[in-house]
TrEMBL record:
Alphabetical GO biological process terms: methylation
Higher taxonomy: Bacteria, Pseudomonadati, Pseudomonadota, Alphaproteobacteria, Hyphomicrobiales
Transmembrane regions listed in the UniProt entry: none
CDD domains the record matches: AdoMet_MTases
Positions of the Methyltransferase domain: 42-150
Entry's Gene Ontology molecular function annotations: methyltransferase activity
Keywords: Methyltransferase, Transferase
Gene3D superfamilies, sorted: Vaccinia Virus protein VP39 (3.40.50.150)
Name of this protein: Methyltransferase domain-containing protein
Superkingdom to which the source organism belongs: Bacteria
InterPro entries named among the record's database cross-references: Diverse_substrate_MTase, Methyltranfer_dom, SAM-dependent_MTases_sf
């Protein structure tokens, strides 16, 4: 459930972070392709990508639905939508927008809606899912990936350890999964918002990073400015140095290998 002391700000994103996210975001793109597989997008379908970031996965979805289909990607961060718009085509458009308010879209407008590593940044999940249910056609499908509080990412555990080894309070960390949800919590939310055929699976995803700097860059850009927020510059420098030393223990010939855990959840709107 939401952490009452955690404050996730969308105002801290910058064009530099957006560019870093675009450069390093292939990790999340690969997670998203695994999300789209069970959704089985078909030619001619209309799809909504909520929290699209810089649009890489939406572009992939547009290829799946083909020229007769249509994909819309929305994200609240203007700097990321600016990059996403470079991907626009005849069947793919992007705009700024929030998951909690899909009022620009008509009821039953989409066949599929998905959220790729988005919902754990949002406290009011019930409103988000109710909006998703409204804009789906009868029988429409929904899919999402979300962090599960029972299985924190390996990098997050190492970060907490780095904070402690720097002589600081790890409880000051506010980013990375503060609004995660368990399977039971998700099932209840889907039931409350009128979805049926809920199913989910917690998956282990092993990521390879070239260096600690690359991993830190991904963490900072994916948290849109909230990474190590609340620590001073000097404290952050100590934490980063301690973190880099800790992750080196996970180096292999291919690079730094760390496990990330995501819950993949699916349901549909009743016919």
């Amino acid at each position: 459930m939401p952490d009452p002391i955690a404050v996730i700000s969308l105002q801290q994103d910058t064009p530099e972070l957006a560019r870093a996210y675009e450069q390093l975001g292939v990790i999340q793109f690969n997670h998203g392709k695994l999300l789209l597989e069970p959704l089985a997008l078909r030619s001619g379908e209309r799809v909504l990508d909520v929290g699209t970031g810089t649009g890489r996965l939406a572009e992939f979805a547009a290829h799946l639905v083909g020229p007769k289909g249509h994909v819309v990607g929305i994200d609240p961060l203007e700097s990321r939508i600016a990059i996403a718009r470079l991907r626009q085509s005849t069947n793919l458009v992007f705009d700024t927008g929030r998951a909690e308010d899909l009022s620009r879209f008509a009821a039953g407008e989409f066949d599929v809606i998905y959220f790729n590593s988005v919902l754990h940044w949002i406290a009011d999940k019930r409103t988000v899912l109710a909006e998703a249910q409204r804009v789906l056609r009868p029988g429409g499908r929904i899919g999402l990936t979300i962090q599960d509080p029972t299985a924190p990412h390996q990098s997050r555990l190492l970060l907490r350890r780095a904070v402690a080894e720097s002589g600081l309070d790890a409880g000051r960390l506010t980013a990375h999964g503060v609004h995660a949800a368990t399977d039971d919590e998700l099932r209840a939310l889907f039931d409350q918002t009128g979805f049926v055929d809920y199913r989910s699976e917690l998956r282990t995803l092993v990521e390879t990073h070239g260096s600690a700097d690359e991993l830190l860059g991904w963490s900072e850009s994916s948290a849109f400015g909230n990474f190590l927020d609340g620590f001073s510059y000097a404290e952050g420098k100590r934490i980063r140095a301690a973190f880099a030393e800790l992750v080196e223990a996970h180096r292999t010939p291919e690079g730094l290998k760390l496990a990330r855990y995501l819950r993949y959840a699916f349901a549909r709107k009743p016919d």
